[in-house]
Amino acid sequence: MIRISKRNSISFGKSALIRGIAILLSLIATAIVILAIVGLNPIDVYVSMAKGTFGDPFNLFGKRFQYFLRDMMILTCIAIGLAPAFKMRFWNVGAEGQMLVGAIGAMFFMRNFAGKMPDVLLFVCMIAAALLLGGIWGLIPGFFKAKWNTNETLFTLMMNYIAIRFTAFCVAKWENPFGSNTVGIVNSDTKTGWIGNLLSKGYNGDYLWTVLIVLALCTAMWAYLRYSKQGYEIAVVGDSENTARYAGIRVNRVYMRTMAISGAVCGFAGFLAVSAVSHTISISTAGGRGFTAIIVAWLAKMNPFVMLLISALLTFLSKGAIQIATDFQLNEYASEIISGIVLFFILGSEFFINYKLKLRGSHKEG
Amino acid sequence: METVDNIKIPDAANNPETGSEYAIELRHITKRFGSVVANNDITLSLRKGEILSLLGENGSGKTTLMNMLGGIYYPDEGEILVDGKPVSIRSPKDSFHQGIGMIHQHFKLVDVFTAAENIVLGLEGDKGKLDRASIRKAVAEIADRYGFEIDPDQKVYEMSVSQKQTVEIVKVLYRGADVLILDEPTAVLTPQETDKLFSVMRNMRADGKAIIIITHKLHEVLAVSDRVAVLRKGRYIGCVDTAEATQQSLTDMMVGRSVSLNIDRPKNPDLKDRIRIEHLTVKDKEGVKKLDDVTFTAMGGEILGIAGVAGSGQKELLESIAGLQKMEPGTEIHYIAPDGTDKLLNGMDPLDIINSGVLLSFVPEDRFGMGLVGSMNIIDNIKLRTYRIGKSPFTDRKVPTSLAEKIVSDLEVVTPDINRTPLRRLSGGNVQKVLVGREIASNPTVLMTAYAVRGLDINTSYTIYNLLTEQKMKGVAVIYVGEDLDVLLELCDRILVLCGGQVSGIVDASATTKEEIGLMMTQFRREDAQ
């Protein structure tokens, strides 16, 4: 008989080993599935998958890898936004909407004030608008939770749909050219309000600005959650509201403050999506990343640096899925099965990190 | 045994009385949790028709050992014999089939069911029918035989704690248990209820049942048991006949060295009014009064004991002072600072109280529900009181770290790592030490404790009593909500007795008796309160 018991602690090496085994097993399982379903050589499929991230031929300075970095960093940015809320056990599933309204805020200034104010001021306004709108979008469910103890999961989820319709409204209002039902590339001639390249001239060549900004944000959030007084309050509220009250923490204020911060960071991801990536806006600007980021934040156990790794993995998988689909004329669903299997094994390995199995009757420690 | 025979119980209950002399024998039982050895080679036997007390400090492995009889854990090594036959108890169901009935500290009853319904819950009746009349008859018979007072048709939610306990005991008897294990059954009872329980236990013993009782209260051990088995740090220390034991000898066995069992009660000559409460009334969500017009003064330099049956308003009283309760209009809570300034605390939340310079410490009864953060380590829990200090947006770690180290060494907290192990992983006693240590360390002028020694072993309990007395001598107003009347009588200067949310009297602890307080706990006597 197998007995399951919780581990008291696990060494870093051991947990890395378990994760490594999980990835290896997932590759084997995927190979079997690939063979069984589509009859392709699994090695070819894996190589193709890697091309999605590293380009063909592999090139760490190529466009492909930079797109990978860009997408991974924006995903991380959203997950960073979710971290304080999740740490407070406030299930913010509204990152999608908070990102969209942030994007609207940035686009509003980019579109209407380009050339009418100095570029630096324009960037300040775009960022401020993204933070403010995202923050408000997060604050609303926080306020309702604090005031009337509403269910935050449903509330934040519903706010997404409002944000999506609101975006659709703005797209219709800012339509260009008329009748296209898109906003088009904004300021495509002057590039005003676009985040440029750091190492090379022009735009969208290297994404180092995005990388640097998100890395800085990552460090800041890590320090905020780990060392700041507010971060400590968040953790206390998350574990026990009554203990927080007992210690003189005003729980309602912490709810509202934290959700405003959470929403603002997600809104900032919207700014990045507009200013550094697409230079346009549509209802798919967030594109489901607000939900993917939930997985990222969870798997990383709210640690911003681990989020980088998880985002990298998820982005790698999704880029790989697209690449496999084009290379082998498969539909994307087939390649998503592969991503799903890999993810399953990685999530499953968490169980073995937290628990150990022991065979009944044996006296050895598992 | 007609009662039991009409329910299908295999093996155990049908054993002829002529079996082994022992109801239970444990041989060389070892149980490990990871690297911790909870039970180390324990050999212990329980005779038929005896009451055995199992005694030991916190973490000595009493509950673990009993849980192996109850089918909750399975021993790593050793064997268990029931009535002379080796058995394997892999689940609570196995345990029950062996005729072992365990009564846990926390009752496992369905609130909306009647006593009778709870008693038969989970049993296979005849042809799926619920024959209420015969159940009632069987329950009444058990009650008569052992002297229980039970109404089979009363709903559990209408019952007092003692009545619920009765239902639990009748439940296992109804199922044909020959061995009863009671885990700290008296912790929630008044002295009168305890006496009643003991007389029931003696009746069961006379009927040939074997009983194991776990309790921390030595006078109860001496009063009720035939033999006492002592565990220390997972090892079996020995077994003595109760007739030959004294409180002191048992304590020495438990602790492993000689411990003084006297609580000093020095008088602090310098008494000052510190907290004056007038007309405190608190209603719960349903509008039921939890506290009704409570008026009293707690003085700096004394320990004011609060006695009462569990749920008489103790929690609400302390939380009102701490700013955590909504109070009805008309209530006034005055805080008189050592320099004589009078502040009104009602209407303030805990942060207001802190900011107004009132140094209030509070050890609440439900540690993880309030007071501590289970997922955090010791240092971060110590921080709860100090993190706000200073203008920096970041928390200071130095002060709480050194304080945590001091508490761990002064109070002998057992923890793998003060920096990494979450508090929830520590044993209950160690958790309580951290909480009490932190609250005393913040140099309060008012120190409120609710069941400060609950779950603590004798040695640590006395350490805590001494700390409280030390605080009193420093001029702190100590409010001590307790359940052990012997301790209340020895430790406190005055005792306020609550009964159903009302003050049924304030008595001088050195001039009253346990019986008097026990009576005041159960019946409200307004004329005495005046």
Care to give the gist of this entry?
The complex is a heterodimer of chains A (366) and B (530). By secondary structure, chain A is mostly helical.
Verbal overview:
The complex is a heterodimer of chains A (366) and B (530). Chain A is an all-alpha fold and 366 residues long. Chain A has 13 helices and two strands, in the order E-H-H-H-H-H-H-H-H-H-H-H-H-H-E. Chain A has helices at residues 12-37, 42-54, 63-87, 95-112, 119-148, 152-173, 208-227, 229-239, 241-246, 251-278, 289-299, 304-327, 332-354; strands spanning 2-6, 355-359. In chain A, helix 12 (304-327) runs antiparallel to helix 13 (332-354). The two termini of chain A are 14 Å apart. The longest helix of chain B has 16 residues, at 191-206. With 530 residues, chain B is of the alpha/beta class. Chain B is built from 18 helices and 20 strands. In chain B, strand 17, helix 15 (458-473) and strand 18 form a beta-alpha-beta unit. The chains are: A mainly alpha (366), B alpha/beta (530). At the A-B interface, helix 8 and helix 9 of A face helix 11 and helix 12 of B.
